């Protein structure tokens, strides 16, 4: 179990630090998206998890916003998790985004491991015409017994 946790942590750290999509490099950070994740029971080949999110813009001229979302993970996903929290840096092609600009579907890689306290990371691209990138600002925090590695899909409304 300890080896599996270390492998999950290493994968999460790799995603959080080194997996910036090439298309995100021409974007500017416009704020942060902080999401509270609902408890989750995973299936062997995937899971579905509800969340509520708050967008805090970097610019004073932009407006904060709230979103409801659901994330689906496809791939290895076993176990259960209590509620958790995930924070992403939000990148866009312009320095200021309008209200509701984060609505849409995002796709990317994800990993997490929980044996008591857990860690995870998700690198996602999508939103308005696939112009928004979500990069992990901090790793996911949750408690439970869970191991997941695969592709994630996040829909914000």
Overview of this protein structure:
Strands 1, 2, 3, 4, 5 and 6 form a six-stranded antiparallel beta sheet that branches. Mean pLDDT is 77; it is low at 1-24. By secondary structure, the chain is mainly beta. The chain is built from one helix and six strands. It is 11% helix and 64% strand.
Secondary-structure map:
Blueprint: H1 2-18, E1 28-37, E2 40-42, E3 46-57, E4 65-92, E5 104-126, E6 132-156
Antiparallel strand pairs: 1-3, 1-4, 2-4, 3-4, 4-6, 5-6
Structure summarized in a few sentences:
The protein has 157 residues and is mainly beta. The protein contains one helix and six strands. The longest helix has 17 residues.
How many strands appear in the DSSP assignment?
Answer: 6
Order of helices and strands: HEEEEEE
Give helix % range. Answer: 10-25%
- The secondary-structure class comes to mainly beta
Major beta sheet summary: 6 strands, antiparallel
Coarse shape: elongated
User: Mind telling me the C-alpha Rg?
Assistant: 15 Å
Strand content: over 45%
Task: Give descriptors for this structure.
157 residues, elongated, disordered N terminus, 6 strands, 64% strand, 6-stranded antiparallel β-sheet, mainly beta
């Amino acid at each position: 179990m300890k080896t599996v946790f270390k492998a999950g942590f290493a994968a999460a750290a790799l995603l959080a630090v080194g997996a910036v999509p090439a298309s995100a490099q021409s974007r500017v950070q416009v704020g942060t998206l902080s999401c509270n994740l609902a408890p989750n029971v995973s299936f062997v080949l995937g899971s579905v998890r509800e969340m509520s999110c708050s967008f805090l813009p970097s610019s004073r001229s932009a407006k904060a916003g709230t979103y409801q979302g659901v994330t689906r993970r496809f791939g290895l996903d076993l176990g259960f998790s209590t509620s958790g929290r995930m924070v992403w840096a939000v990148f866009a092609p312009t320095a200021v985004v309008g209200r509701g600009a984060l609505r849409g579907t995002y796709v990317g890689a994800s990993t997490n491991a929980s044996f008591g306290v857990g860690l995870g990371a998700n690198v996602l691209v999508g939103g308005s015409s696939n112009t928004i990138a979500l990069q992990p600002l901090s790793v996911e925090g949750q408690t439970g017994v869970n191991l997941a590695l695969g592709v994630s899909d996040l829909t914000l409304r």
